[in-house]
Amino acid sequence: MPADGELLPLVESFYLFRHPGHEIDGVDRVDIGQVRFMLRGSGHRVFPDGHRETSLAVMVNGPCGAAAAYHIDGPFECFGVSLRALGWKSLIGIPANKVSNCILDAREVFGAEVTDLLEQLRALDSLEAMAAVVVPFLLARRTPVPRNHVALVLAVREWAASGEPGIEGLYARAGMSERQAARLCNEYFGGPPKHLERKFRAIRAAMVIYQGGDPKDAAAPFADQPHMIKEIKHFTGHTPTTLKEGIDPVLAVTLDNETFHFLPEVIPESVDAMR
C-alpha cells in the first residue's frame, strides 16, 4: 500500500506478507531501509559477506549493498515499512552505510513503545488497519532534514531516472562538491555514487529481462553479457535465467512494474520534504 499524505516524503509503502509454510527460504534483492514487525514466525538472514543474524520481533534493516538470503521458520506473517532515503535520515537517523548489512533492534531506535505497537499489530488482520496504527507512530518521530540534503536526494532521483552513464551526471546536478555528494550518498543510500550507479543499472536490466525484453538490449549498458549476469546476480540474487524461471515471488512483484519499487528510495519531486 503506497504511503500518502505527510509520510509520503519519508515512506515509500507499507506491506503485509503472509506465508503458510513451515520452512521458507528465499532471497532479498538489494533493498532500501525497512522497518519490519514479525507478527508470526522467526528466522535468520545471511548477508553478502557471509555473516548470519537472527531476526528480531521488531527490526530495522539498513539499505543493503547486495542481495541477501533468508530462512524463516513459519507459518510467517510480517508487516513492513519501506523507507525512502529521506525517511531513513528523518526516522532512523543513523548513517545508512554504517548499518547497511546488519539488523538493528527497533527498540534501540524508537524506544520501548515499539513493543506495544507490535502487540497492537498482532491483534489486527488487514494491511490498511495496521498502517493506520503505524502512521501516527512514525509521524510523531520525524526529525527535520537539511534542505541541501533534500537537494542531493532530488539530484540522485533525476540522475537515476535519466539512465545516463557515469557519476559525473550526478555531480553536475548536485550543486555541491564531489566529496560532499559522496558523503551524503553513503549516509542516505548506504553506498557511494558508483555503487548507486551499479545498483540502478542492474535493477533496470533485471526489469527488462523479467518483463520479457531481449537480454541483449538489457546488456547494452554493461561491458559485456557476462558482466551483466554478474551484476544482476549481485544485486538481485538471480541470474537472467532464474529471473524467468523460479524467481522469488517477492522479487517478482518489485520487478513487475517500473512504477513500483524501481526508485523507491528517491522522493517524488512534487513533495515538500520539510513539512
Quickly give the structural class: alpha+beta
**Nearest-angstrom radius of gyration?**
18 Å
The proportion of residues in beta strands is 15-25%
Q: Please estimate the helix content.
A: 40-55%
Shape descriptor reads globular
Low-confidence stretches: 258-275
How is the biggest beta sheet arranged? Answer: 7 strands, antiparallel
| SSE sequence, one letter per element | EEEEEEHEHHHHHHHHHHH
How many angstroms separate the termini?
A: 22 Å
Supply the number of helical segments. Answer: 12
Overall number of strands: 7
Mean pLDDT: 88
Question: How would you sum up this structure, described in words?
Answer:
The chain is of the alpha+beta class and 275 residues long. It is 43% helix and 20% strand. It has twelve helices and seven strands. Strands 1, 2, 3, 4, 5, 6 and 7 form a seven-stranded antiparallel sheet that branches. A hairpin with a 5-residue loop joins strand 3 (34-46) and strand 4. Helix 5 (147-162) packs antiparallel against helix 6 and helix 8 crosses helix 10. 40% of the residues are buried. Residues 258-275 have low confidence and may be disordered.
